[in-house]
Amino acid sequence: xxxxxxxxxxxxxxxxxxxxxxxxxxxxxxxxxxxxxxxxxxxxxxxxxxxxxxxxxxxxxxxxxxxxxxxxxxxxxxxxxxxxxxxxxxxxxxxxxxxxxxxxxxxxxxxxxxxxxxxxxxxxxxxxxxxxxxxxxxxxxxxxxxxxxxxxxxxxxxxxxxxxxxxxxxxxxxxxxxxxxxxxxxxxxxxxxxxxxxxxxxxxxxxxxxxxxxxxxxxxxxxxxxxxxxxxxxxxxxxxxxxxxxxxxxxxxxxxxxxxxxxxxxxxxxxxxxxxxxxxxxxxxxxxxxxxxxxxxxxxxxxxxxxxxxxxxxxxxxxxxxxxxxxxxxxxxxxxxxxxxxxxxxxxxxxxxxx
Length: 355
Ligand SMILES: [Cu+2]
What we know:
CATH class: Mainly Beta
Strand content: over 45%
Number of domains: 1
Low-confidence stretches: 18-32
Order of helices and strands: HEEHEEEEEEEEEEEEEE
Bound molecules: copper (II) ion
Number of strands: 16
Helix content: under 10%
């Protein structure tokens, strides 16, 4: 790992852990169960015998293209000399995530998460001149949209408590992603030859990784007075190539948040997330279109997202145990491998109920 990346990781730990500790170090023992912003998974544990059910809706939006960290236009991509004739313009990913948590003991919380995913991508096709006699110009274009939807990968996990104090908690995250999402979706496209076949769609339009992935991590969370904060480091490690002959890139994510409780039923939060992902290794022989998303090298990179969130907490009567939360994240810095679409923002709305 290059020194610059290591420095970024250390900076996150400093701001999330040491700084808040020293700012708010006092002897107040007012204990509340703090949750991270709704976009963070596996942030909290439960007490023996407790169940929690959750539903999250997450919408992710990508638009325009980057080469490294610089913007590149569709014409720039066409003229890049890489033989690219189809350019993605926009992509939305909507996910419906259903989760359950159960704690057989105070030391251990088990998790299950099932996803339904919908993806949509708009493209611009630059038509090939159809021969010397044809009047069609180099700039003739067409547009088309591809869509996929279905079950995504299923995640099971265990949270194991390393330290449970009055004000701070540390636990290990041990996750396994099971490849229930299909990776052979097809849809109709518009080729530079003005034909409309339905080939296998490029990697970002598939709904799963096709591999068993382990997801180890560690989470630190603290709370004092009306403040709470935390930090989580999580990795995704692909165990093998999938049946189509590739594996998505491994990923490391560091996220740190701070929250403030305005009243007993309302909290607000700020969060910074750093994500590093590798390119795809291997190749699906059936993904072969003149578009950047068909090239395994045009995957991975790094990015920083800034999130703002609110959580409504039901603490009395019929609302007890219910939470409703929203988090909006926007990408503030991004550096991609090769040419890729630019991440714009993410919205997560979630409902949690514990008993
Ligand atoms: Cu929970």
